[in-house]
Amino acid sequence: MTLPILELAGLRKSFGELEILTGIDLKVTKGELAFVIGPSGSGKSTMLRCCNLLERPTSGAVMLEGRNIAASGVRLDPVRRRIGMVFQSFNLYPHLDALGNVSLALRKSLKLPRAEAAERAAAALERVGLAERARHHPAQLSGGQQQRVAIARAMALEPAVMLFDEPTSALDPELVGEVLAVMRELREAGMTMVVVSHEMRFAREAADRVIFMDQGAIVEQGTAEEIFGAPKSSRLQAFLARQAA
Amino acid sequence: MDFSDAFLNATVLQKYAPSILSGVWVTLYLSAIIVVAGTALGLILACIRACGWKAVNFVIIVYADILRALPPLVLILIAYFGLPGVGVLWSSNLVLFIVLTLILAAFAEEIFWAGITSVGKGQWEASRSTGLGFAQTLFWVVLPQGVRMGLPPLTNRAIAVTKMTALGSVIGVPDILNQATTAQSFSGNASPLTLAALAYVALFLPFVLLARWLETRFAWKRT
Amino acid sequence: MEQIAQQFFNLDIMKASFPMLMEGLKITFLLVLVVVPLGLMGGLVAAIASGAKSRWIRWPAYAFVDFFRSMPPLVLLIAVYAGLPFAGIRLDPFAAVALAFLLNNSAYYGEVYRAGIEAVSPGQTEAARSTGLSAPQTMAYVVLPQAVRNVLPDLVSNTVEVVKLTSLASVVSLSEMVYQADMARSVTYNASPIVLAAGVYLVLLWPVVRLISRHGRKIAS
Questions:
Q1: C83 CB near a chain B CB, below 8 Å?
Q2: Rounded to two decimals, what is the model's pTM?
Q3: Of the candidates C161, C196, C162, C160, the residue with the CA atom closest to the CA atom of residue C178
Q4: Which ipTM value was assigned to this complex?
Q5: Is the Cβ of B122 closer than 8 Å to some Cβ of chain C?
Q6: Which residues in chain B have Cβ-Cβ distances shorter than 8 Å to A77?
Q7: pLDDT digits (tens, 9 = 90+) for A82-101
């Protein structure tokens, strides 16, 4: 039994009266790709944002490599370097070129010397196939290229786990493929990943485990065949029927 | 009455050109230090405001509001004629420098603050999720974007405030206007005023054109 | 502390100078009522001229605007008040202030309008012209209403600047509020009358300044 890299235990989150997460328990083991599906408003993104404490959970624990990072007094900046995050809207820094976007945290947070940071950033851009775009600013890149730079930015810090928050939802359909290809390569290289997405085809072929969330809770989870081939709960069946329609 | 004799009299111009030139230096160096100090103070205040301490922010907002609502001349008169009564004896140059710096800082704070708040939440989140701290995010990610947004209005405001150095002539700062009005009353001729007007246009026109240029190219595509 | 209260917030002196200040405030209001509409109209002319097709109209308009934006308002005022008499034109202080402000404000309001006009999409003009409206009609009924809406906050904030600038009239002995306050100051050797004048400006302008800041934030977010 391997120790999970990331574990959520009894995670709850409410905004005022509104309860978004009603108690999430989830273990992600090393090298696993956990794929989270569910209707909009089911709390998928909030759960993901709790994993790196962009949202502070109301109660419950977020264990990273065996340590509760949601406990008070934990210094978050070093922790966040261990958790990469890729956003739906890319959130690249418009005033920096691709290399600058990737190397900023290497230099300022990891405190690498400029040359070493540039080298590592260039290597990360190479891995997402954008070595020749290093000097381009975000505005000069296509949406797919921007998201690949964002993946490189997270990856360059060599995190223990990477979170993907609907990474292809803001992209034109013809640009989705290049981003998924990069994610596939990451998985083959052994990266631990938690992906919130609507790309069911990608889930079928790449996910080790599919997690179905609804109304702030995990309703059902299993392999892709189990979830897509033999859904047990009526809510999952209804959700999949809507997706197919 | 000969027009050119009254407004462009060569003898008068020659005689008073040196004193007006000395005024140019006064105007120039006061303007330079006001812009540097006022912009820096405004930036610092905006950064402090970004930290979100309620009581501190209230003080900053009240300060910025008051200095933006009051006529500079009123502040200059209060400082110049009021402070000696409480034992503070500042030269007229120092009074002008301090008052105009505080005014520019108030406007600059508002401009920088508007720039900071215009940077989307996603930028903060992206930066924080790579392990950069609050101050690092503010400095390396948010300010470069916010400052750039604020550059055109800041240039315009800096021009407007530094032009106010002419108000110094009211309290005896030996600037261009002061030298020109003195020369005009001694010579009984308007030529020194003409020269002063030309000197001001020569000093400020480049910056007015710079502001125009900045306005046309400041926008950059958001991602 | 006591000394500061005496020098800046002397209530007796404030009370005594209050009637004088109110006399001055009337002139200040009168000035605002004259120079703001003049500036708004002059600015409109400058803005429309800087958008003209012919460079013989456009370039002089730009030169006018940039020249007067480079000139400190006080320098302009003194040039008009003390310079023009040498050309045989003697203006009383009020007329001198009105003329200097017309030139200065037209340049500033002109820039504001111009930005507003440029922000109206060319499609609006094309649509209006294709329905048979003339160029002036298009400007008056289609472009300008949108342009003014675009830059309303800037027009308001420029007007605040104009109100503040009316204090310069005191330098040419026009007895507006700051002039009256400074007279009271020189008689009493005390800064309280000017502090009182500052208080009046605050009462008048602070709400507007606050409104502008709020609005700016709304645009930003």
A1: yes
A2: 0.89
A3: C196
A4: 0.92
A5: no
A6: 128, 131-133
A7: 999 999 999 999 999 999 99
